[in-house]
């Protein structure tokens, strides 16, 4: 169905075009659209001057896709254990020998850390510094409406994608919230460039909710034989930013005046793990042989 990055200004279009060199290097079908091509793809009164469009990008409903993946790997012999926190890595002779969980030790010679916003905290406890921060992103679901197109699109004001239930998922395009905490200060220099570029769309908050990865009271060291921070806060479920979502619905209504501001059926938020260059990390951790990191 495709994913489209819309450009309001020639400067936005140039920034999108810069990504084409990376897309081509990986064999993607990304291409720049002209103003006329953008209007043909997404009929709208919004005066977008162009867009970066990747026709082969697709979407999936998480509550459908995740159970399907789980069933597939289970059929292949993988054991899935839910509701069981990993407290620490089990290290022997300088390399990973397993993990310590709240239910006991699991021995293995390869571990994948895909801890999302928790990754930096987990690694720091093992002596590995990862310049990662978590930002608050809010999302809403509308009721059924005649979506202007079937794919997903984003500009600086809102992001939208068609839902299987007939509505759309709507979110702020560029705005997000960031809590100030020990990691935010520790990694300020690493994130200086991206913060300078996005300071207008970043809402700084003085402190993260209690128990969150970068909260001031969250411990940076803990005993692997006792409950740690991952058991005290099992699910990051922050309150959505109502003001940001209101701005997104207003922007959507202006872009699609025939639809207007859609009524919101549900709202939620999450903590999105991000890196200084806004590019995910998928690599082996040299300091801890046997550990692979996937985050960002």
Description of the structure:
The protein is of the alpha+beta class and 296 residues long. Helices cover 24% and strands 29% of the residues. It is built from 9 helices and 16 strands. The strands form 3 sheets. Strands 1, 2, 3, 8, 9, 10, 11, 12, 13 and 14 form a 10-stranded mixed beta sheet that branches. A 3-stranded antiparallel beta sheet has the order 4-5-6. Strands 7-16-15 form a 3-stranded mixed beta sheet, with no helix packed on it. A hairpin with a 2-residue loop joins strand 4 (86-92) and strand 5. It is globular. The two termini are 25 Å apart. The relative contact order is 0.17. The mean pLDDT is 91.
Describe the global form: globular
Rg over CA atoms, rounded to whole Å, is 21 Å
State the helix count.
Answer: 9
- Major β-sheet annotation: 10 strands, mixed
Q: What is the helix content?
A: 10-25%
Give the structural class: alpha+beta
Mean pLDDT: 91
Q: Which consecutive residue ranges, at least 5 long each, have pLDDT under 50?
A: none
N→C terminal distance: 25 Å
Strand content: 25-35%
- Order of helices and strands, N to C? EHHEHEHEEEEHEEEEEHHEHHEEE
The total beta strand count reads 16
């Amino acid at each position: 169905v495709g994913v489209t990055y819309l450009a309001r200004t020639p400067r936005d279009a140039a920034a999108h075009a810069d990504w084409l060199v990376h897309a081509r290097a990986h064999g993607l079908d990304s291409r720049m659209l002209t103003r006329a091509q953008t209007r043909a793809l997404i009929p709208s009164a919004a005066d977008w001057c162009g867009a970066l469009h990747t026709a082969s990008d697709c979407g999936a409903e998480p509550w459908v896709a995740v159970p399907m993946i789980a069933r597939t790997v289970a059929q292949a012999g993988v054991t899935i254990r839910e509701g069981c926190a990993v407290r620490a890595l089990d290290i022997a002779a300088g390399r990973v020998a397993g993990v310590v969980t709240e239910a006991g030790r699991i021995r293995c010679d390869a571990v994948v850390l895909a801890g999302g916003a928790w990754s930096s905290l987990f690694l720091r406890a093992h002596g590995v510094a990862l310049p990662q921060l978590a930002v608050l992103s809010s999302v809403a679901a509308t009721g059924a409406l005649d979506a202007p197109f079937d794919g997903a699109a984003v500009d600086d004001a809102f992001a939208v994608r068609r839902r299987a239930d007939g509505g759309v998922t709507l979110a702020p395009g560029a705005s997000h919230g960031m809590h100030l905490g020990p990691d935010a200060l520790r990694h300020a220099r690493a994130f200086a460039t991206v913060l300078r570029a996005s300071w207008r769309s970043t809402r700084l908050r003085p402190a993260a909710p209690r128990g969150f990865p970068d909260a001031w009271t969250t411990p940076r060291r803990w005993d692997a034989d006792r409950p740690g921070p991952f058991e005290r806060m099992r699910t990051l479920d922050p309150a959505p930013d109502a003001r940001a979502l209101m701005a997104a619905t207003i922007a959507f209504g202006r872009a699609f005046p025939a639809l207007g501001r859609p009524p919101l059926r549900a709202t939620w938020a999450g903590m999105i793990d991000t890196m200084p260059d806004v590019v995910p990390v998928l690599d082996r951790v040299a300091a801890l042989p046997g550990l692979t990191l996937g985050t960002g």
